[in-house]
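Collaborator request, handled under Task 6.
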Amino acid sequence: METEEAADEKKGILRRPKELLEPVTRPVLGLKLFSCNANRPLADKIAEVLGVPLGRADVERFADGEINVHVKENVRGRDCYVIQPTCRPVNEHLMELLVMVDALRRASAGRITAVIPYFGYARADRKTQPRVPISAKLVANLITQAGVQRIITVDLHAGQIQGFFDIPVDHLIAAPVFLDHLRKKNLKDVVCVSPDVGGVERARAFAKRLSAGLVIIDKRRPKPNVASVYNVIGDVAGKVAVLFDDMVDTGGTLTKVASKIREQGAVKILAACVHGVFSGNARDMLEQSEIEEILITDTIPLPPGPAGKITQLTIAPLVGEAIRRNHCGESISELFV
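Structure tokens returned to the collaborator:
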């Protein structure tokens, strides 16, 4: 009898590899993990996955707010990983990363890899009008010049940002984490909805692995953080709609798209967004929307308060396995084939 894994392989469905499903039985030796202050809970989970303790380092502030880092253990010649998403407050966390990397470089670390689960400034990846910066490239230059030799990141806002770095970039995708959760729900008649044209490639890949249809939203932005929905390309009537995007910021796009596809007959609406930025009153807005459940990962820590419709899934096993493979010289791309 054909196994479930074999059947899924024929359909082209992505499965999380065995390494991500089984607990670590022995620690990964020879690497050093460090964390700044942006997301210590995620760093603790990654350390647990790898079976190694977080390195001892103080990341503090002087009285005037300047960042002071003190690495309190020997890193000479060691393979060092710094876990630090550049989430809110973005500039503070970016500067923490740069100063930590400089401290490791001056302590003669053998190799320094920045693990940036959420890469801030990624939306400014091109000139959309005259006399504006390409901030994503500027940040890439800063990180490289600080002494980082490799980047591990999760679901960049635009894949081409990898080319902004003059060092290797391991671009992980969180889709396997969402797929595990959604498969357990045994949903029927599912369509994957891309909230805008720019996310079509991402949504198409997700729909294929979920064996679902694809719907595209024709969305325009009259100004930053303001979205207008014009057309729904595809059929959502009588279907379970899964809105798939790389991030949820103000919540305006998801709220308006959910309302539009409910009008067109979607019977159930879920959202899967990798990075939960949640600016302003986004959480309150989404609580009152047509979306029944909002899936996010822990690339960004959730502020205190009731979860409501939000379900947070951890990417620690995925990132931990990528770190292990990088340290051991094994293929990371095999995680996603």
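The cover message to the collaborator said: "The first helix runs from residue 4 to 11. The CA atoms of residues 297 and 313 lie 5 Å apart. Please let us know whether this matches your experimental observations."
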